[in-house]
Amino acid sequence: MSATILDGKAVLATIKDELRARLAVLAEQGVVPGLGTVLVGEDPASSWYVGAKHRDCAEIGIASLRHDLPADSSLEEVLAVVDRLNADPACTAFLVQQPTGLDEFAILSRVDPAKDVDGLHPVNLGCLVMNEPAPLPCTPVGVVELLRRYDVPLAGAEVVIVGRGLTVGRPLGLILTRRSENATVTLCHTGTRDLAAHTRGADVVVSAAGVPDLITPDMVRPGAAVVDVGVARRDGRIAGDVHPDVAEVAGWLSPNPGGAGPMTRAMLLSNVVAAAERAAGVPVAPA
Ligand SMILES: Nc1nc(=O)c2c([nH]1)NC[C@@H]1CN(c3ccc(C(=O)N[C@@H](CCC(=O)O)C(=O)O)cc3)C=[N+]21
């Protein structure tokens, strides 16, 4: 038996089609959303991610406002670009690609929360904690959307998350424990005494640790869903957290690449369209 592959690339294509319909409604009102990006330096992976986001936008009719800054830019210079995008009516939503090597909290805090496509502004994260509508962080909400589209049961399920980072593990725990998802979450991390004891009891394992091959077949209950969000690099290629042999044990597997990455981009596009709908007074499709 081999796991059903949770195909993030295919779902990204489907979501692009769904967003095209919403963009057509906005276009009738003369609204063309614009995604802004701020990239500091020339890290090849970061440059690829930003390029991919703009290609996605071009494909479905979202305008691009791209700001590439030199690697030695100061915090003040980055914040000045953030201020310009906050004030620019052509910019519906934007992000500062992380990491920049600069004060992340200062940068995230400076973004207008209404234009925060990453859902990582402290106010938007606070809304998530308080269960108020706000943009949601793209990678965790993308993981949930991927599981939902393949009918992986979440209500009442035991979900083990490996990793407590700001962009994946911590917000994913908050999203999955909302009444609408209703999962039971265990948030594991490098201080967890016996990781395998937790993962073996899980219906769903989401690994976002950045440790290649951390999740081995003996750690997975037969039939469980396993989502690989790890993005370590080995010889320039992505090395996921999930050992390839897990595919023989799991019921569902979100591979890496091809799973959470494309879903992150899908949710980014969805957040841009939702921000434009909110700004234009068009009813926002439910997330
Ligand atoms: N402010 C900010 N927002 C982000 O959303 C953000 C960020 N900073 N910093 C870095 C991470 C990483 N990230 C990815 C996006 C797409 C893929 C993706 O599409 N990957 C493809 C191809 C990967 C490849 O082959 O290189 C895949 O998984 O199939 C991966 C990772 C967004 N991030």
From TrEMBL:
Tree of life domain: Bacteria
Q: Where are the transmembrane segments?
A: none
What the entry lists under SUPFAM superfamilies is as follows: Aminoacid dehydrogenase-like, N-terminal domain (SSF53223), NAD(P)-binding Rossmann-fold domains (SSF51735)
**Enzyme Commission numbers on file:** 1.5.1.5, 3.5.4.9
> What keywords is this UniProt entry annotated with?
Amino-acid biosynthesis, Histidine biosynthesis, Hydrolase, Methionine biosynthesis, Multifunctional enzyme, NADP, One-carbon metabolism, Oxidoreductase, Purine biosynthesis
CDD domains the record matches: NAD_bind_m-THF_DH_Cyclohyd
Note the PANTHER family from the entry.
C-1-TETRAHYDROFOLATE SYNTHASE, CYTOPLASMIC, C-1-TETRAHYDROFOLATE SYNTHASE, CYTOPLASMIC-RELATED
Regarding protein family, the annotation reads: Belongs to the tetrahydrofolate dehydrogenase/cyclohydrolase family.
According to its UniProt entry, what is the function of this protein? Catalyzes the oxidation of 5,10-methylenetetrahydrofolate to 5,10-methenyltetrahydrofolate and then the hydrolysis of 5,10-methenyltetrahydrofolate to 10-formyltetrahydrofolate.
* Assembly with partners or alone: Homodimer.
Identify this protein by name: Bifunctional protein FolD
Organism of origin is Ornithinimicrobium pekingense
